[in-house]
Design goal:
7 strands, binds copper (II) ion, Immunoglobulin-like, 5 helices, 4-stranded antiparallel β-sheet, 3-stranded mixed β-sheet, binds 2-acetamido-2-deoxy-beta-D-glucopyranose
């Protein structure tokens, strides 16, 4: 009676699908810098950079007409000064640059075409570990000063608690899904 068994377990298949969707949500995302405006002199990258929560594994896509702009990943002081004579970590200029965010740290990007950085083609983002619940307390790699002073730009109502609640809710879903899988296959 395999068929009967399958249909009896059908609701569990749904849970499995939901579980898969959650996993996908936690893996990686592509973000086109500037969204529809892309990487150009008119867009406001300060507001763009605060629109999303970036996690390790995400990819930034810089789209622009090759030769009109470029993308430098820089250190914070270079981001602030727009002086690219030092502090440049990586350069991109293809017009369709895919930058994978491989570390949990602050990333800073500028356009090094003359005047563009000072004109607003620059932004910084804080890339977080994909699963904060497992790796939040204890070790943070060598930047003790940046931790306690950090405030959310627009504090929603008790954001910390909300995060905690949604994290434990997710954990609940995962546990439930694992339990179901265990019953199905063991
Ligand atoms: C980013 O994270 C904060 C705090 O966890 C949350 O309040 C906010 O809704 C998130 N924003 C997006 C776009 O996911
Ligand atoms: Cu530019």
């Amino acid at each position: 009676m395999r068929k009967g068994k399958f249909f009896r377990h059908f609701p569990f298949s749904l849970i499995l699908i939901i579980y898969t969707l959650f996993l996908n949500g936690a893996t990686s995302e592509d973000y086109v810098v500037g969204d529809g405006d892309e990487w150009n002199s008119q867009a406001n990258f300060l507001s763009w950079s605060t629109k999303y929560n970036f996690t390790v594994g995400d990819i930034l896509v810089f789209k622009y007409v090759k030769g009109q702009h470029n993308v430098y990943e820089v250190e914070e002081k270079t981001f602030r000064s727009c002086d690219s004579s030092s502090g440049v970590l990586a350069k991109y200029e293809s017009g369709n640059d895919q930058v994978k965010l491989t570390e949990a740290k602050k990333y800073w990007f500028i356009c090094d075409v003359s005047g563009h950085c000072l004109g607003g083609m620059r932004f910084g983002i804080d890339v977080k570990q994909a699963n904060p619940s497992s790796d939040n307390t204890g070790s943070n790699d060598g930047s003790p000063t940046s931790q306690p002073t950090e405030l959310p730009a627009t504090p929603p109502s008790s954001s910390g608690r909300g995060t905690l609640l949604s994290e434990s809710w997710k954990t609940g879903i995962y546990t439930l899904a694992f339990g179901v899988l265990f019953k199905l296959f063991c």
